[in-house]
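Forum: Protein Structure Q&A
Topic: Joint prediction for protein chains with partners

I've read a bunch of threads here and the consensus seems to be that you should model interacting components together rather than docking separate models afterwards. I'd like to see that in practice. Below is the full input, 860 residues plus whatever partners are listed. Could one of the regulars post the assembled result?
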Amino acid sequence: MKLSSRAKAVSQSFFAIIIGLLIGSFLMIIFGFNPINAYYALFVGAFGTVTDVLETLAFAVPLMLTGLTFAVGVRAGLFNIGSEGQMYLGALAAVVIGGTLDLPFGLGVVCATLAGAFVSLLWSLTPAILKVTRGVHEVISTIMFNWIAFWLTTYLIVYHFGDPTSAERSIRVLPSSRYLILFEGSTLTTVIFVAVAYCVLVYFILWGTKVGYELRVEGSNPDAGRYAGVKVWKTTLLAFMLGGIASGLAGASQIIGRPPVWSFYATLGNVAGLGFDGLGVALIGRNHPIGVIAASIFFGALIQGSRYMQYNAGVYFELVRAITGIIIIALSVPEAITVLRRWVKK
Amino acid sequence: MNDSITPFISMMSIGKIYPDGTTALTDVHFKVERGEIVGLLGENGAGKTTLMKILSGLLQPTSGKIIINGESVNFKNPIDALSRGIGIVHQHFALVPIYSVLENIILGQEGVKNSIDLLSSLKLERAREKIHKLIEITGLEVPLDAPVGSLSLGIQQRVEILKVLYRGIDVLILDEPTSFLTPQEVKELFQIMKNLKKDNKSVIFITHKLKEVLEATDRIVVLRNGSVVGETLTSKASPESLALMMVGREFQPPKIEEKGFAGKDLLKVDRLTVKSDFDTLAVKEISFDLKEGEIFAVAGVEGNGQAELVEALTGLRKAESGKISVGGFEVTNKNPIELFRAGMVHIPADRHKHGLVLDFSIAENSILGRQWEPDFLLTFSRLNLPRIRELASRIMKEFNVIAPSIDTVAKSLSGGNQQRLIVGRELSKRNVKLIIAVHPTRGLDIASTFYMHEVLIKMKTAGKGILLVSADLDEIMELSDRIAVIYEGKFLDIKRTSETTKEEIGLLMGGINQ
Ligand SMILES: Nc1ncnc2c1ncn2[C@@H]1O[C@H](COP(=O)(O)OP(=O)(O)OP(=O)(O)O)[C@@H](O)[C@H]1O
Ligand SMILES: [Mg+2]
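Posted by a regular:
Agreed with the consensus. Here's the joint model:
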C-alpha cells in the first residue's frame, strides 16, 4: 500500500502537469501559437542535445535544494518559506570565503560550500527558536527574515565585498573554490552531486532515523506526536536546520558552482526567486526528497526549454511561467484542501 | 414493515474493490423500507462501513446500482445522497471543535457556505427554531451554544445526528453509534431511533453488540467477508443464531477466572487535580491506588473528567496538583516516553487522534510511541527497519489485524482492525506493568472482544495492573475487581465488583448516591 499511495501521489503530479500543459496550449491557441510546435520546441530545447540536458540539470540544482527546504518543513508540519533569505546568506558566505581565502583546490571548494551551508543554517535558526520558545508563526518570521536577508546581503555586497572593477557585483570566487565544470560548454558543475547527495541524505534521515520518524509523525498528526512523546522543539529545530542547510547549498551552488560569473550580483539576480520557486518544486515533488529531485528536473527543463521555445516557436517566456503556475494550482487543490482542513480543525 | 412490492431503497448486487485491490463487497443486495430499523451486523472488516459509505454517496460502487422508489440513482458525493434523503453519522465525527453546536449543525448548509454567513443572526435564529423543533420530536437534547470541542463524545454524536436530520433526511445511517455510549445514553439513542421510526423515517444501525441489535431493530442483515450471509426478522433471531451467521461457526465466550486477588501497589494517585481545555477543573482531587494483578475500572458518563484523568496519567495533560506514582516512582507530569519506560502502556480512547498516524503504514504505526526503544534502533539512531517490519507482522498475526500487508496505510483499515493494531502495539511491548486501557474493545467484533478480554485477564493473572476506562458496563462488571464511578470530576464511590450490581453503578453514574 505504501507503493500504491506513492503511486497515487506520482499520478496526481502527472495529472496536474498534463492539465497545466493542456491549459497552456489553450492559452497558446488564444494568442495564435501552435501548441504542438511550441511543446516540441520546449522538449527539444530541454533535452535535444547533451548540452541541453546538462543545462536543464544545471537549472535543476538550486531548485531541488530550495524545494527540499520547503518539503522538509511540510513534513514536520511547518510552512517554512524562509528559503529565499537563507539562500542569499548562503550565497554571500560562499562568495566571501571563496573569494578571499586562497586555499588548495579541494579544500577551497569544501570550505566555501560549508560556509554557505553553515551561515544559512544559522540564519534559519532564529525563526525556529522564535517558533519553539515564543510560538511565533514561521510564515511571519520567515517572511521578515527574507527581507532582512535581502537588504543585509545587498548592503554587504555593495559596501564590503564589491568588486572594485565592476560595481554591479561582488568579488569573484577564486578558481580554487570553484566546482569543476562537467562538460566544456555547459554550466553544469560537480555541485550537482552535492545537491543530489544532500537530497538522498535527507531522505534517509526522514525515513530511516528516529528523529526523522518523529518529524514526520509531528507533521502528519501532532496529537499522535504528543502521544508518542515526540518533542516538538526537536522536530521543529531539525526541520529548520535541514532546510537551512539545503537553502545555503542552493545559494552557494549558484556562486561557486555555476559559470560563467563566479560572483554575486548586487541585485542578487543570480539567485533571486529560486527560493520561492522551491515551493512549486516541493508541491510537484509531493514533499518527498526524491520526488523533489524529479520535480526540479522538470522545472529545469521548463526553464531551459522555454528559452528555445521563445525563439523557435515565438512563444513568450512568460507563457511558460503561466503554465508552471497552472500546474502548481492544479496540484495545490487537493493539497490545499487537506492543509485547510487541518487548519480548521485547530 | 412495508408490504409494497418495490422497496423504498434497494441496493442491487453491489460490488466494491478499493483502488489497492482489496475486494470489500461482492454482489450485495440490501434493502430498506420506510419506517424500518435495520440492523447491519458483521465482523471487523466484513464491509459494513463500505456498504454504508456507498449508500451515502461517499464511495462509488465498482458494480451494482442503488434504486430509490423504483428509480435508479447515481450518487457522486454525499450531497447527492443527502438530497435524496440519505444521511450518515460516521464511526468518527467530523465536527469543527471551535464552532458552537448551532454553527456546526448549519455549517455546509445551503446558504451557509462559510463562517461569514454564520454571522448573519437572522439565519441563525431561524435555524435555532428549526433545530428546537427537531429536538422536540427526537429527544436529542444538546446545548446549542456550547463549542463542540467542550462536549463529550456522546453529545457530539447527538450533534452529528441533528446535523444530518437538519438536512431533512428519510434514512439515517448510524455506523457503530453505541461504541462509546453509556448504557443510559444507549437507551436514549434507541428511544430516538424509535421516535424517528414513528416519524416514518428509516434507520440503519451498525453494531457489534447482539443484545443491542436484538433490542432495537426490526430486521437484521448479516455481512461476512463482503457478502450477505443472512437476513432475518429480529423477532425470529436469537443471539446464538446471529453469532453463528456472523462467524460461520459456533463459539463460546471465554471463561473468566476467579478474581479478587491483588498484590503490591502499582499505581498511586494522590489528590490529583486536572484542568480541562476550557480551564475549568475537570478532575478534582482524585485519589486511588491500583494493585498488581488488579483490574480497576473507572465507570462514568462521558465528559465527567475521565478523559482528563487518563490524559494526566499518561503524560498528555498537565496535572495542576497532586501526585502520580508508578511502582514507587513519581511520574507526575512526565513525558509519555518516561511513562512508557516506567512500564505504562496506553490504549487511547481516540484512535484517530492519538493512537495512529492515519497516513502512515501499519509498519510505521507499529512503533508509534515505541520509536525510542533500543530494539528498533541501530547506531546513530537509525531505524532498524527489518525489526520494525518483523514486529508489524507479529502484531498483525497475533492480534489478527486484517490487511493486505504491513505496508497498508492505517487509513484504509476497517475501524476494528485499526483498534487491533493499536492494542497489539501496546500489549506487545516489553516489561508492561500497567495498562491504561480506554474503551479497549470499542469497535471490535464479538470474537475480537472475547479475545481482548482474554488478553486482559491473562495480563492480570501475570500480575500486571489494568486501569480500565469503559462505557460498557457489562464489560466492566465482567472484568474488573473494583469499580470507581466518576461524576463531575470526582470519584463518587469505589466499590468491589463482587459487592455491587450493574444497577447500582448505573445510578451512581447518574450522580445518585444512596
Ligand atoms: N480506503 C480503503 N482502501 C483499501 N481497503 C479498504 C479501505 N477501507 C476499507 N478497506 C477494506 O475493506 C474491507 C471492509 O472494510 P469496512 O471498513 O467496510 O469494514 P467494517 O465491516 O466496517 O469493519 P469494522 O467493524 O472493523 O468497522 C476491509 O478489508 C478493509 O481493510
Ligand atoms: Mg466499520
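The longest strand of chain B covers residues 265-275.
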